[in-house]
Protein backbone atom coordinates (compact mmCIF):
# COMPACT_ATOMS: atom_id res chain seq x y z
CA UNK A 1 0.00 0.00 0.00
CA UNK A 2 1.28 3.41 -0.93
CA UNK A 3 1.18 6.31 1.48
CA UNK A 4 0.36 9.77 0.13
CA UNK A 5 3.36 12.06 -0.23
CA UNK A 6 3.59 15.11 1.99
CA UNK A 7 4.25 18.29 0.07
CA UNK A 8 6.10 21.14 1.73
CA UNK A 9 5.18 24.78 1.13
CA UNK A 10 2.24 27.13 1.17
CA UNK A 11 -0.88 27.26 -0.89
CA UNK A 12 -1.53 30.17 -3.20
CA UNK A 13 -4.33 31.41 -0.95
CA UNK A 14 -2.01 31.49 2.09
CA UNK A 15 0.58 33.49 0.15
CA UNK A 16 -2.02 36.02 -1.03
CA UNK A 17 -3.41 36.49 2.51
CA UNK A 18 0.12 36.93 3.91
CA UNK A 19 0.93 39.57 1.25
CA UNK A 20 -2.32 41.39 1.99
CA UNK A 21 -1.59 41.52 5.73
CA UNK A 22 2.01 42.64 5.12
CA UNK A 23 0.91 45.37 2.67
CA UNK A 24 -1.71 46.70 5.07
CA UNK A 25 0.87 46.91 7.86
CA UNK A 26 3.38 48.68 5.61
CA UNK A 27 0.79 51.25 4.50
CA UNK A 28 -0.23 51.91 8.11
CA UNK A 29 3.43 52.42 9.05
CA UNK A 30 3.96 54.85 6.15
CA UNK A 31 0.86 56.87 7.07
CA UNK A 32 1.81 57.14 10.73
CA UNK A 33 5.39 58.14 9.91
CA UNK A 34 4.07 61.05 7.80
CA UNK A 35 1.99 62.26 10.75
CA UNK A 36 4.99 61.96 13.08
CA UNK A 37 7.21 63.89 10.65
CA UNK A 38 4.70 66.74 10.39
CA UNK A 39 4.35 66.84 14.17
CA UNK A 40 8.12 67.00 14.60
CA UNK A 41 8.37 69.89 12.12
CA UNK A 42 5.64 71.81 13.93
CA UNK A 43 7.28 71.21 17.32
CA UNK A 44 10.62 72.41 15.94
CA UNK A 45 8.94 75.64 14.84
CA UNK A 46 7.36 76.12 18.29
CA UNK A 47 10.72 75.50 19.94
CA UNK A 48 12.54 77.96 17.65
CA UNK A 49 9.94 80.67 18.39
CA UNK A 50 10.25 80.08 22.14
CA UNK A 51 14.05 80.20 21.91
CA UNK A 52 13.89 83.55 20.07
CA UNK A 53 11.53 84.98 22.69
CA UNK A 54 13.65 83.82 25.61
CA UNK A 55 16.78 85.16 23.93
CA UNK A 56 15.16 88.59 23.54
CA UNK A 57 14.09 88.60 27.20
CA UNK A 58 17.69 87.81 28.20
CA UNK A 59 18.96 90.71 26.07
CA UNK A 60 16.44 93.10 27.66
CA UNK A 61 17.52 91.91 31.10
CA UNK A 62 21.20 92.49 30.29
CA UNK A 63 20.42 96.02 29.06
CA UNK A 64 18.18 96.81 31.98
CA UNK A 65 18.89 100.54 32.18
CA UNK A 66 18.50 101.27 28.47
CA UNK A 67 16.01 98.56 27.45
CA UNK A 68 13.37 99.69 24.96
CA UNK A 69 10.48 98.17 23.06
CA UNK A 70 11.00 96.98 19.51
CA UNK A 71 10.53 94.31 16.89
CA UNK A 72 12.57 92.12 14.58
CA UNK A 73 12.18 89.23 12.18
CA UNK A 74 14.39 86.16 12.64
CA UNK A 75 14.14 83.03 10.47
CA UNK A 76 10.59 83.88 9.28
CA UNK A 77 9.48 84.46 12.88
CA UNK A 78 8.22 87.94 13.76
CA UNK A 79 9.21 89.03 17.26
CA UNK A 80 7.63 92.05 18.98
CA UNK A 81 8.48 93.03 22.54
CA UNK A 82 7.42 95.83 24.84
CA UNK A 83 9.21 97.06 27.92
CA UNK A 84 7.28 98.84 30.65
CA UNK A 85 9.00 100.36 33.65
CA UNK A 86 7.23 99.48 36.88
CA UNK A 87 7.71 100.84 40.39
CA UNK A 88 11.23 100.65 41.71
CA UNK A 89 13.80 98.97 39.53
CA UNK A 90 11.48 96.53 37.79
CA UNK A 91 10.73 96.05 34.13
CA UNK A 92 7.75 94.21 32.74
CA UNK A 93 8.67 92.58 29.44
CA UNK A 94 6.00 91.22 27.09
CA UNK A 95 7.28 89.26 24.09
CA UNK A 96 5.08 88.03 21.23
CA UNK A 97 6.37 85.75 18.51
CA UNK A 98 4.32 85.10 15.37
CA UNK A 99 4.98 82.54 12.65
CA UNK A 100 3.24 80.57 9.95
CA UNK A 101 2.64 76.91 10.77
CA UNK A 102 1.03 74.16 8.68
CA UNK A 103 -2.25 74.88 10.50
CA UNK A 104 -2.16 78.65 9.93
CA UNK A 105 -0.64 81.67 11.64
CA UNK A 106 0.31 81.18 15.29
CA UNK A 107 1.26 83.68 18.01
CA UNK A 108 2.82 82.89 21.36
CA UNK A 109 3.08 85.51 24.09
CA UNK A 110 5.53 85.50 26.98
CA UNK A 111 5.44 87.93 29.90
CA UNK A 112 7.95 88.35 32.69
CA UNK A 113 9.14 90.82 35.30
CA UNK A 114 12.82 91.67 35.42
CA UNK A 115 14.51 93.18 38.47
CA UNK A 116 17.29 95.59 37.58
CA UNK A 117 20.26 96.18 39.86
CA UNK A 118 20.43 99.70 41.27
Describe it for me?
By secondary structure, the chain is an alpha+beta fold. The chain has one domain (12-115). Helix content is 43%, strand content 32%. The chain has 1 helix and 4 strands; from the N terminus they run αββββ. The chain has one helix spanning 12-62, and strands at 70-74, 77-85, 90-101, 104-115. Strands 1-2-3-4 form a 4-stranded antiparallel β-sheet, with helices on one face. A hairpin with a 2-residue loop joins strand 1 (70-74) and strand 2 (77-85). The longest helix is centred in the N-terminal third of the chain and has 51 residues, at 12-62. It is rod-shaped. The mean pLDDT is 89.
What profile does the largest beta sheet have?
A: 4 strands, antiparallel
**SS field, number of helical segments:** 1
Number of strands: 4
Distance between the termini: 110 Å
Largest sheet: spatial strand order = 1-2-3-4
Secondary-structure class: alpha+beta
Domain count: the total is 1
How much β-strand is present in the residues? 25-35%
Would you tell me the overall average pLDDT?
A: 89
Low-confidence stretches: none
Secondary-structure element sequence? HEEEE
Estimate percent helicity.
40-55%
What is the 3D shape?
A: rod-shaped
| Radius of gyration, CA atoms, in whole angstroms | 30 Å
Q: What topology emerges from the helices and strands here?
A:
Blueprint: H1 12-62, E1 70-74, E2 77-85, E3 90-101, E4 104-115
Antiparallel strand pairs: 1-2, 2-3, 3-4
Considering the chains and any ligands shown, give keywords for the structure.
about 120 residues, four-stranded antiparallel β-sheet, 1 helix, about 30% strand
